[in-house]
Amino acid sequence: MTLTRNMYGLERILSVKLFDRGPNHIDLTTIGIFAITKFKEILNIHQEIVKDIKDYDTNKTIINGLSCAQGAI
Questions:
Q1: Could you tell me the pTM of the whole model?
Q2: Which end of the chain has the least Cβ crowding within 10 Å, N or C?
Q3: What backbone torsions phi and psi does residue 16 show, to the nearest 5 degrees?
Q4: In terms of residue numbers, what domain contains 16?
């Protein structure tokens, strides 16, 4: 699917016009600027969640490894 079709699809899903399209340019509308801000927030939260889960799993593995080592002593 092309980028243009994805952009139109997103506008259809949200029922708003995110872009002002001209013959030689494309600009974000006011609601488009707002949407980009919200999408960036969501992306940052997503990245934070992924990092936290990976860190949790790593820490759990280390803690389990230490507790096993302590049990063996």
A1: 0.65
A2: C
A3: -140, 160
A4: 3-72
